[in-house]
Design brief:
The protein has one domain. 73% of the residues lie in helices and 0% in strands. The chain is mainly alpha-helical and 104 residues long. It is rod-shaped, with a radius of gyration of 37 Å.
């Protein structure tokens, strides 16, 4: 069985230099990859925010379309506690307690 000769020092040095270069290159990719993942997370958050705002915008557009309707204006005025001239305003207290009692 022939003896294997040990590789020369320059050959070993080149191998270790290659391994070190590979390690340095691999480590240089860590920061850009973490930045990329963080950016992806921010993008998904912004997409969710845009979807929410789009839905809110649609609701507001619907309310705006209804705002020209007299019945809508009257409903909103009553919700704000306004009454027509000549009407009497009655304030009824304890409605929530009455509703809870009737549900049981």
């Amino acid at each position: 069985m022939p003896r294997r000769s040990r590789p020369s020092r320059s050959s070993l040095a080149l191998r270790w230099l290659g391994v070190a270069a590979f390690a340095i290159i691999a480590l240089s990719y860590v920061h850009p990859l973490t930045s990329y993942r963080a950016a992806q997370a921010r993008v998904s958050e912004r997409k969710a925010e845009v979807a929410s705002l789009t839905q809110e915008n649609a609701q507001l557009q619907h309310r705006l379309a209804l705002s020209g309707d007299d019945a809508f204006i009257e409903r909103e005025a009553r919700r704000l506690g306004l009454v027509r001239p000549g009407e009497r305003l009655f304030i009824v207290k304890g409605i929530e307690a009455l509703r809870k009692a009737s549900v049981r």
